[in-house]
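Re: weekly structure request thread

Next one in the queue (758 aa):
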Amino acid sequence: MDFHLKQITLSLFLSSALLCAATENVTSIKYEGMVHISQAVAQQLNEIKIGESLDPARLDKTIKTFFEQGYFEDVWAQEEAGVVTFYFKEKPSISKIELKGYKENDEEAQKSLLQIDKGALYDEKRIEGAKKRIVDALNQEGKIDSVVEVETTKLDNGSLSVKFIANEGEEIIIKELKYNGVLGLDPDEFDTIIANKERDFMGWMWGRNDGKMKIAELQYDPLRIHDYYMQFGYLNAKIDAPFVTVDFNRYEAKIAYNVFEGDIFRVSDVLIFQDTAVIEDQALLDVIALEKNKPFNIKTFRDDADRIKTKIADLGYAFVQVQPDLRQDKETKTVEVIYRIVPGKKVHIGDVIIAGNNRTLDRVVRRELFLAPGDLYSLTNLKDSRNALGRTGYFESNTIEEKRIDDETMNIIVQAKEAPTGNIQLGGGYGSFGGFMLSAAISDRNIFGSGITVGLNIEKSQRNNNYAFNISNPRLNDSDFSGNFAINNSSTQYDTYTTTSKGLSVGVGHRFSRYWSGYTGYNYSQNSYSDLADANLTQEQLRYYESYAKSSVMASASYDSTDDYYVAREGMTFSQSFEKAGVGGDADFLKSRSTFAIYRGLQKLTDFDLILRYKARYNYIANMGYLPINERFFMGGIGSVRGYQSYSISPHTYDANGNIVKETTTGEALKNGGEQTFSNSFELSFPLVPEARMRATAFVDYGMIGNNSITEVKRGGYGVSLEWFSPVGPLQLVFSNPIAAKPGDDVVHFEFTIGQRF
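Done, posted below.
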C-alpha cells in the first residue's frame, strides 16, 4: 500500500508542477494505457472539462479517483498546448494461481482460502488477505509460527503466475490436562467427547491420543463437557473456559478446567400440552424414553422432542413446533419436563420437483418417492424417500428440500447428484491361479437412465473361460414387480480336473412394502467334469466328478432399510432364500442361504464419519438324492473369510500333527465342500480422502464350516480394505492376513472387487 501511495504522491507532484505554468484552456483530453475502464466511464470520473482552464486541485483529485478504482499501479497526467493526457499503468492479471504445502488436494478449501480467481488483477491487499487466511487456518489446526510466502512469475503474455507456499509451523502437544472439581463422573470419559486431549503414551499409534491441540475447538470443549454432565442429571453444572499455558520453546501445553458439578436432578414428571389437540397425549407419552424417578438425560430429552415432532408431522402437520421446557425444584432436586406443542395446520404436497437428474428419467426418481402431489405431508415418508433414492445406487448424493408455499401447502424439491453407474472395462493381468488373463466387461446398473441393469462379461485366461449376460428390471413398467434373465457359459481348469457349466436363470420379484420384497425364479444348468488327472480315484471319489444337470426353483425374501446402496450409514439388511433342485435334472437337494447386516454411523458420537458394520452369513444344504460337489459350500475370500484364497476352505481330514491328509494319488487333498457354514465380519470404516470419495476399513472375519458339525473347520482373518469410487466404478482393494491358518491352507494377502456393495 505504501508503494502505491508513494506513486500517487509523485504523480500528483509532477502534475502540479507542470500545471502551475499552464494558463491555456483545455482543448482536448486523451487516455493512454487504459483498458479496464471505458472512456465513457473515465469521462464521468474526470473533473477536468474541455473549454475550462486547468485546475491543479481538480486534476489531482481526478488522478486519485482513477487510482482508487483498483485497476492501476500508477496514474499520471501531462498537459501540452491545451491537450491533457492521462497515462495509466495497468495492474497485471493473474492467469495461474496455486497453493503449495497446505490443502493441495482440496480444491474447495483452496478456493475458500485464496478467494482469488484466475483472470483477477494482481492486488497486494488481496494477496495479503489470502496469506492471512492461510496462516489463520493453520493456527486453528494448532500449527503455530506458520509462514506463507508468495512467488510471482511474469509469463510471456504479460500475466502473472502466483504461487502461495505454506510453511506449516510447529504443532502444540497437550502434555497435561487437569479437571478441578470433578467428583461424580470419571474425567477419563471426557476424552470420548472433547477435541483437545492429553497425549497418550505412544500417542503416534492409531487409536491413541496424539495430543495435538485444536485451537478452533477449545471454545467448544467446555460446552461438550457441560452437555455430557447433563446426560447424567447435572442440570446446573458449570465448566469454566479452559486455562491454557504454552511453552513455546518446546511447543507443549497444559490445560486446566475448573468444574462445578452441582446436584443430580431426577425426573419428577413428563407433561404434554397441545395448543390444539391433534392426537391423544398418551400416544405421545408412549414415544418418550425419559423415565420418572431416573436421572435427567439431556440427550434423551432432545431425542424425545424429535420423536414427538415426527409423530405429529406424520399426521400432516409439517410446521409443527415442539417447545421443550424444564422446571427445576432445587429443594427436592427434581425436574419437571414439559413439551408444549403448536401443531399449526395440516399441509399437503403441492408439487414434486426433480432436479439434477441429467441422465436418470424423472419417473425412475418419482417411483422411489413416498410423497406425491396432493398427498398429506409425512416426515417419515420424506426420510424414507431420501433413503430409498440412496438404495438405488443411481445417485452419489440426494437431498429433499421443503419449500413452504403457504400454511397449508408445501412443494418438495429433490436435488440429486448422479453417480456413474455404467462402465466399460478392458483389462489384462496375471494371477497365481489363472495365469495370464484378458477380460472385457460392459455393465450399467441404470442403462439410459431407465433403472434397468444390463451386464455382459467375457473373461479368458490360461485356466478360465467365462461368458455371461444378464438383464434385470427392478420395477417392471414402474410397478412393484421386478424381473431378471441371465445366461452363462464357463469352464475352469483346476490342478486335477476341469469343470464346465452352461446355464440360464429367470425370475420375477415383488416389493411388498418399502423395505420388504420377495422373489421366485427358475435355474437350469448343465455341468460336467473332464481332464481328471488321477486315474486311480475310487468309485466313492469318482461320484464327485459325475456330469449332471440341475433344474431348480428358488424363493427368497429380503429386507433393506439402509440409506445408501454402496456406503450405508444407517439401517439393516436381511435375506432368506431357498433353492430346491430336483424339478427334473439329476441333482436333488434343498439349499438355504441367510444373510444379515447392520450399519451404524457414529458421526454424532465421535464427531467423525465413522461407520460400524456387522455382516453375517449362514448356509445350509440337505442332500435329498444327489448332491454334487459344486453345490456344496466353500469359504475363503471376499464375502466370507478374507486372508484365504476364494473357495479354498473346506472340510478335510487331518492327521495327529494337524496336517491335511492327502486323499488322491496325485497328492492333491480332496476338497469335499461343506453342508453348512457360518461366517461373520466386524468392520470399522472411516474416510481416507473424502474429496476423492475414498475410505479405509479395518475388518476382522471369522467363519466355520462342516458336514456333521458346523465347527469342523474354523478360520479367521483380519486386515484393511480400501474403498474407492473410482472412474471404473466402486473399487475395493483388500489387504488381509489369516488367523489360525493350518499347514496346507491357501492363504492370500491381496484381493479386489469392482462394483460390489461395501
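Confidence is low (pLDDT under 50) at residues 1-23, 427-437, 664-669. Residues 2-19 form the longest helix (18 residues).
Next request, please.
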